[in-house]
Specification:
The protein is mainly alpha-helical. Helices cover about 75% and strands about 0% of the residues. The chain is globular and about 80 Å long. The model has no long low-confidence stretch (mean pLDDT about 85).
Length: about 325
C-alpha cells in the first residue's frame, strides 16, 4: 500500500515537473521567435538614434577635420543663442503642421461624410479617393512641380483662360506664393488619409441613433455636432496626432519642390537638419538640431495626449 502511494506521489511530481517545463517553454518560445526581429529593429532604429545623440555633443564637421572632438553643449548653445535661421525654421514648421493638419482634417471629414452617403458607383469613387495617398511622394512632387511650372504649367494656363491672371506666375520661386503652393500639393496627398480613417468610423455609428435624433426634431447640423463628431472623437484624436507627427517630419514634398527656398520660406526643421548634416557635412551641428527637434516632438505628443485624455475624462 505504501509502495503504491509512493509511486503515485512520484508520478504526480514528475507530471507537475513536466507541465512546469512545458509551461516555461510555452512562455519563452514566443520571445525566442521574435528575438531576431527585435535585434534587427534595435540595430536599424535605436543605434542611429543613439548615434545622433552622441554626435550632437561632438565637433564633427567634414569640412574641418582638424576640429574633431568633444564639444559638450556648444552646438546647442550656438543653435539657441547664435543661429537666427533656427527660430525661423521653427516658425515655418509650426505654420506648416498647423495649417496642414487642420485643413486636412476639415476637408477629410467633408469627403468622408460625402462618401458615407448612398449613391451610384460609390465603391469606385471610394477607390479613386485613395489614389493620391497611394502615389509615392517623389511622383507627387514631380506632378505638382509640372503643374506649377511658370511656362508649361496647367495652373497658369487655366487661370489665364478664366481671367484671374494675365501673365505667368512662378509659383515655386515667388516668396508670396511658394508656401501656399506647397500647402495645396500636400493637401492633395494628405486628405485621403483623414477621409478613409473617418469613413471607417462613420460606418460604425448605429443608424438607430440618427433615427432617434430625427424623431426628436434634430436637423443635419445638430446630428453632426451631437452625434457624428462625438462618435468620431477617438478617430480624430488618433488621426490628428499621427498626421501631425508625419507632417512635422515631412521632407520629400518640400525638399523636392523648393529645396527649402526661396529665402528659406519653406525650410522646416527636418529640412534644415538635413541641409546642415548631409549637404554641408556638419554632422555634429545637424545632430544637435535633430535632438532639439526630437525634444519638440516629444513635448508636443505628451501635451496633446494629456489634453485629449483630460477632455475624455470630462
Amino acid at each position: 500500500m505504501k509502495m503504491r502511494q509512493h509511486l503515485t506521489t512520484s508520478e504526480s511530481i514528475r507530471t507537475m515537473q513536466t507541465k512546469r517545463r512545458r509551461f516555461n517553454s510555452d512562455r519563452t518560445l514566443p520571445y525566442i521567435l521574435i528575438a531576431p526581429t527585435l535585434i534587427l529593429i534595435a540595430v536599424i532604429m535605436f543605434y542611429p538614434i543613439l548615434r545622433v545623440f552622441e554626435l550632437s555633443v561632438q565637433n564633427y564637421d567634414l569640412t574641418r577635420p582638424q576640429e574633431f572632438g568633444f564639444a559638450g553643449l556648444l552646438n546647442f548653445k550656438r543653435i539657441l543663442f547664435e543661429d537666427d535661421l533656427f527660430f525661423g525654421t521653427v516658425w515655418v514648421t509650426a505654420k506648416w503642421v498647423l495649417i496642414e493638419v487642420v485643413l486636412q482634417l476639415v476637408l477629410g471629414l467633408i469627403v468622408a461624410l460625402l462618401l458615407n452617403q448612398s449613391f451610384r458607383l460609390r465603391g469606385v469613387v471610394r477607390s479613386l479617393v485613395l489614389v493620391p495617398w497611394a502615389v509615392s511622394g517623389v511622383l507627387t512632387t514631380m506632378l505638382w512641380s509640372l503643374m506649377y511650372n511658370q511656362h508649361i504649367g496647367v495652373i497658369n494656363d487655366l487661370l489665364k483662360k478664366i481671367g484671374l491672371i494675365h501673365e505667368d506666375i512662378a509659383w515655386l520661386a515667388n516668396t508670396k506664393t511658394v508656401f501656399g503652393s506647397v500647402i495645396v500639393a500636400e493637401l492633395w496627398r494628405g486628405i485621403p488619409f483623414f477621409a478613409v480613417t473617418l469613413l471607417a468610423s462613420l460606418q460604425s455609428i448605429p443608424n438607430d441613433v440618427y433615427e432617434s435624433c430625427e424623431v426628436d426634431g434634430c436637423g443635419k447640423v445638430k446630428k453632426l455636432f451631437y452625434i457624428t463628431l462625438p462618435y468620431l472623437k477617438e478617430s480624430i484624436i488618433f488621426a490628428t496626432l499621427l498626421r501631425a507627427i508625419w507632417e512635422f517630419n515631412s521632407i520629400d514634398m518640400i525638399f523636392t519642390m523648393t529645396n527649402g527656398g526661396p529665402m528659406n520660406m519653406t525650410t522646416t526643421l527636418p529640412i534644415y537638419m538635413m541641409q546642415t548634416a548631409i549637404l554641408k557635412g556638419n554632422y555634429g551641428y545637424g545632430s544637435a538640431i535633430g535632438v532639439i527637434t526630437f525634444i519638440f516632438l516629444m513635448i508636443f505628443v505628451l501635451v496633446y495626449l494629456r489634453l485629449s485624455r483630460s477632455e475624455q475624462d470630462d
